[in-house]
Amino acid sequence: MSQFRSERKRALLSIFMFLLLSESLFSIGFGYHVFDVKAEAEFGSGIFPASAYYRFDFPMPDLIKGNDTVLSFSIDNGLEYRTLRQSPYNGELIDEFPENYRDLKIRDYSALFDEFNLLFEQGFFAKPYQDGDDLVDLHVSLGGRFELAFERLSWLRDPDSIAGVFWLSPSIPRFPDAPWIGSPELRGDRMSVETFITLGLKFSTMREDEYKKNGFKAALFFRYSPSWFPLNGPTSDFLILHLKGEGSCVLYDVKEKREGLSWFTLTLSSEYLYRFIYGSKVPYYAMETDMFNMWAPSAENLFYNRLSLNMYGPQMYFKDLYVYISLFHEFAYSFGPVLNNILSDSINEIVALMGMKAEFVIFDFMRAFFEVGYAYKRPFNEGASIIEANFGVSLGF
Asked: Does the domain spanning 2-396 belong to CATH 2.60.120?
């Protein structure tokens, strides 16, 4: 019986990947291609690409005159480094009770992922600006995600120097017969496939160009991935609510008179996020945050804020050739029941840091960046404050 289930799972996965590839190839011939390559700080020191995002917009007439109608298909795939944050047996947060997990001093591993989304967006009401977005957008998408977790690459190369997450040695598993409650996507053969549906509503008066933002935008998103959806099985059963907001204003702008290029632009921006997650099985990717080299504990509720002072310019010969420097402060507050936990634990934890990011933007196609951050408040009082830096190159068009 177990062999039959394994064969059926492999067959479903093969069909899933075939449809994904077929849809992608079909889309290339008929749509507009959006491409973005990202670096991973711990993969080749951020120099080499670790993931790639593709989006193909299908040519489609606007259903409402004067408002955009978008039908597109996107693929996001690559490699991530992750840290085992929760006990595989009961979901207890390891960093909250380090004395119980002294054998888990090094808990990093790798994850290979592929995510697809087929999305439809319809705009409503007049655009605030001639070249801006619609005032309101309705979003509906159907997606799926495949993941395969394995030992960190450095451990595979030299298993004697770094202890792996899943194995103490090739023949001795670290967690024999572990149910992986804290990380449901790591159950069994550490290969998972999930499907989900996303509904969203966006509001925007934001004007964005090559070097500045001015205005306000907000968005409300629901993502639903129950266990009875196709392919989900034992790894996914959750509902996520995202409520986002961003405001930005131009404080100072000096332009070159003849060409209209900006010598120097100063903007102030503030981003907000409230996230609520409910479910018995929440995979890691659904709990990720965009904080700089930091993590917020996986609780049902999360409030996040990023405040930044952004300096652009000078624009050199062309509008999209310029230097960008941002001074930022990030704050996150996790509270409520711990996710993927059978002990009914609740937390109230704050994470806070400040930092700087410098970029050289080349025709909005390549961005070489350096960023450094200082975490002055870490969750569970994790020892001394730390300073971390990243360097990388991203490509996109």
From this structure: no
